[in-house]
Structure formats: C-alpha cells, structure tokens
Design brief:
About 40% of the residues lie in helices and about 10% in strands. By secondary structure, the protein is α+β, with helices and mostly antiparallel strands. It is globular, with a radius of gyration of 15 Å. Bound molecules: zinc ion. Zinc ion binds next to helix 2.
Length: about 150
C-alpha cells in the first residue's frame, strides 16, 4: 500500500464510499490558475478513460472542431495516487491544447512533444516543481502501482 501523497480529497472517504476525483474541478482550477491567458474557444470535455499501462492522458479534437476531449487514465482517480500526478497530467494535456494540438487554436509546433515544449510550458507556468515530483514518482512507482490497482 502506497501512502505517499495522499490526496486532499481523501478526507471525503468518511462520507463517501467511493470518492472520485472530479476531473472537471481539476480542469477548471488548473486552467484558471495556470493557463488564464489561453482562451477556451470550444467545448472541452474531460473524463476518465482506460487504465492504460503506458499512457496517463490524451487530448483529441472532434472532426468538426467543436469538442476537445481529454481522457485521463482511470487509475489516476485512485486516492492513493499522489495528487501531483493527476494535476500534472491534466496540465500536460492543457499545454497541448494551448499549443494547438487537440484544439482549434493555432498550431505552434510541428510535433506535440518537439523539443520538450510541453515540459517547458509547464515550467513557465509555475508547474515545474510538480512536474519533477510527478516524473520521479512515475519512474519509481508507476509500474508497481499499475500492477496493484489495474484490476480493481
Ligand atoms: Zn503529451
């Protein structure tokens, strides 16, 4: 059992049998706090997706450009997963949105991860510390966490 980085939301455990980290709350607060200059020019939906082994999140745009969909690895809602991993993952997809990937905004780069543009964006937006914690946790803990929780 991992005990690092218990979520603030874990206090809800007492009143709710299955506390779920509400992605729309995370999306809105991260957007307001770290991406206030990025206009939300279409509908942005966010939901938990498959418990992928090698993917934390994704963003894609509907064919008619009206909806951007952000999918977050289902395992990230688990209360024992450090909250910084969830925040960094949502922010990562928002950085893609800001760069015109999975969004109708002008595309700033040829490839979504060219020259570490996402990591650099997160650092410029005050998320560098969380990014470091997240990378370290993913490196050291993710596979064990995945194996432990994928079937629950
Ligand atoms: Zn990415």
């Amino acid at each position: 059992m991992l005990s690092v980085g218990q979520s603030d939301l874990s206090s809800l455990t007492l009143t709710s049998p299955s506390p779920v980290r509400d992605l729309n709350v995370y999306l809105d607060s991260i957007w307001q706090k770290h991406f206030p200059d990025i206009p939300r020019i279409n509908e942005v939906q966010i939901a938990y997706g498959y418990p992928w082994k090698r993917r934390l999140g994704l963003i894609r745009l509907s064919l008619d450009d009206t909806i951007s969909f952000i999918g977050i690895n289902a395992l990230l809602q688990h209360p024992s997963l450090p909250e910084h991993v969830l925040i960094t993952t949502v922010a990562h997809e928002l950085a893609h949105y800001a760069h015109g990937f999975g969004s109708p905004l002008p595309r700033l780069y040829q490839h979504p991860h060219a020259n570490n543009v996402v990591d650099r964006e997160l650092k410029q937006r005050g998320l560098g510390e969380l990014l470091c914690l997240c990378d370290e946790w993913i490196d050291k803990q993710w596979l064990a966490f995945y194996q432990l929780h994928r079937n629950h």
